[in-house]
Design goal:
Layout lengths: L4 E4 L2 E4 L8 E2 L4 E2 L8 H4 L4 E7 L6 E8 L4 E9 L7 E6 L1 E2 L5 E4 L2 E6 L2 E4 L16 E4 L9 E7 L2 E2 L8 E4 L4 E5 L4 E8 L5 E3 L3 E2 L8 H13 L2 E5 L2 E5 L7 E6 L3
Length: 256
């Protein structure tokens, strides 16, 4: 599934990727967007936004768009009301409009507001009509340590290598944890305390051998045995030891 076109009751919304220009003054050259109060420089826009968009042949298109400070995005979509629960994921880069109000990327144009983004039509206008509210995605502001699917994306300062299965963990409110090491299923316990302190108990797992996943698995288990504190910023979780560099980084996955 791609965001380049969305078919809604026979209408096609086609969005184009535009560039960012700048203006020149006598004294110096600087981006137009930085000269005024706008979404880009005044709002806490980075984060994940979720909603259910219209779908021509299903109950709705469950959508999560994550905007990152480094100018990249991830979009996740899932068709509701179908037997197939597959999640379609896309990654890419985005740019800002000259006035700092709109984000543009491959196949989407988004107006950025306070804790929400609005999908615009191909001419950059707000979509009106009975379905208008479905084009507004609300920012997820309550990402918590527990009951969140935390996908492992970096370990010991390096991106996670491809594995037979996605390495992740879910920390349950009752103190138990489960997930995947990238090869085997794993389960165990943890204890989270005040001031971001955390300690993992003994972790058990299945015993399957994976040609490409054993290194990640060993590193993952080592991280869990060493970590003594954590930090959460937006949709990113870091496991740390004392004040050393992060042992591992995880990203919250809102559709799976």
């Amino acid at each position: 599934m791609t965001f380049k076109k969305i078919i809604l009751n026979g209408a096609v919304v086609s969005l184009a990727l535009l560039g960012v220009t700048s203006c020149t003054s006598i004294a110096k050259t600087e981006p137009m967007a930085d000269m005024a109060h706008n979404s880009r420089n005044s709002l806490d826009w980075a984060g994940a936004y979720k909603g259910t968009m219209p779908c021509a042949d299903c109950e709705g298109l469950e959508t999560v768009i994550t905007l990152k400070q480094d100018g990249t995005y991830t979009s996740q979509t899932k068709y509701l009301g179908k037997n197939d629960d597959k999640v379609f994921t896309e990654n890419g880069k985005f740019t800002w409009s000259d006035d700092g109000s709109t984000i543009m990327a491959d196949g989407m144009r988004l107006k950025v507001g306070e804790n929400q983004i609005t999908w615009l039509d191909g001419e950059g206008k707000v979509i009106t009509g009975d379905l208008a509210k479905m084009f507004v995605l609300q920012k997820i502001t309550n990402t918590t340590l527990t009951e969140t699917y935390w996908k492992l994306v970096e370990i010991n300062g390096q991106p996670v290598k491809p594995s037979p299965s996605e390495p992740y963990m879910i920390l349950k409110a009752d103190g138990s944890m489960n997930g995947s090491s990238g090869c085997n299923r794993m389960m165990g316990s943890y204890n989270a305390k005040d001031m971001g302190r955390i300690q993992f108990g003994q972790i058990a797992g299945t015993k399957m051998f994976c040609m490409d996943g054993m290194e990640t698995e060993q590193q993952f288990f080592n991280v869990l045995s060493q970590a003594d504190n954590y930090t959460i910023v937006g949709d990113t979780l870091q496991l740390n030891k004392a004040r050393m560099a992060p042992l591992a980084k995880f990203e919250a996955v809102y559709l799976r």
